[in-house]
Amino acid sequence: MRWVEGLGIALVMVSMASGCGERAPAGPEVASADAAKAPARPARADGLVLVDDRQEPVAPFVMHDPHLDLFVRCQMKRDGAKKEGRTVPLCFDATRRQTDGLKVLRVERAPGDLGAVLRRLAASDEGAHFVVERTGTLHQVLDLAYTARRDGALRPDEVRVVTCHESAWQKLADALKALFPGLRVEVTDLPAPPDAPRAPAAETAPGGTPQ
Q1: 43 pLDDT band (50/70/90 cuts)?
Q2: Degrees (nearest 5) of the Cα angle 162, 146, 137?
Q3: Dist. CA 10–CA 165, nearest whole Å
Q4: Which residue in 20, 147, 152, 187 is deepest, having the highest Cβ count within 10 Å?
Q5: Could you report the per-residue pLDDT of 146-200, keeping only the tens digit for each?
């Protein structure tokens, strides 16, 4: 009878191991193989940029301060001038553009602080999509769906960045190139306003000798 009891116990053990459909936990070798096959995690994206009212995640943090929004600021300036009988151009094209036509990321270096840069743009009725403070903080001031005005003309294939920091814009450039493959980066200096005062000439004494 013992062999019958032994057979019964064996059958019960087999049914417990296989009848429930559970698998034994993988050993260290299996876990290591699964980890090697797992895809690499993408870079953490804490920031957002506005593209046609959509929020696209990007790696660098980008500020969206309503007080710096050129969509509102430039319209208010235009409407105020109209009430005074003057005409000023809007600093961007109010008609949305196709962002798949973007070709150039123009980065313009500008000494000074953020307020000075914004006043400089406003003086020429110009727009930009991003501005960068001397501290390195990135601000988006215009949705990428709108074309910014620069040097008296609209630039429908351009994303414009004006930066007071030497290198903080580079992470933003990398993020934008990932969103818009093929975007060509051009780095230059922000041109001086056309009516910028010239440096004063050296004073001359009555005898004609410079002081």
Answers
A1: low
A2: 30
A3: 76
A4: 147
A5: 999 999 999 999 999 999 999 999 999 999 999 999 999 999 999 887 665 454 5
DSSP codes, 40-103: PPPPP--EEEEETTEEEEESS-EE--GGG-HHHHHHHHHHHHHHTT-----SB-SS---GGG--
Pairing label, strands 184-189, 104-109: parallel
Tokens representing 85 are: 């009988």
At residue 207, the 3 state secondary structure works out as: coil
Residue 71: phi, psi to the nearest 5?
-60, -35
- What pTM, to 2 d.p., does this model score? 0.72
Burial class (CB in 10 A: 0-12, 13-18, 19+), 176: buried
Beta bridge partners of 148: 92
**Token pair of 108 as six digits:** 């313009």
Amino acid type, 126 = E
Q: Would you mind telling me the total number of residues written for the chain in this entry?
A: 211
Evaluated on CA atoms 148, 152, 158, 160, the torsion sign reads: negative
**CA-CA distance, 211 to 198, in Å (whole number)?**
19
User: What φ, ψ does residue 179 adopt, rounded to 5°?
Assistant: -75, -35
Tokens of 154: 């609209």
Binned at pLDDT 50, 70 and 90, residue 33 comes out as low
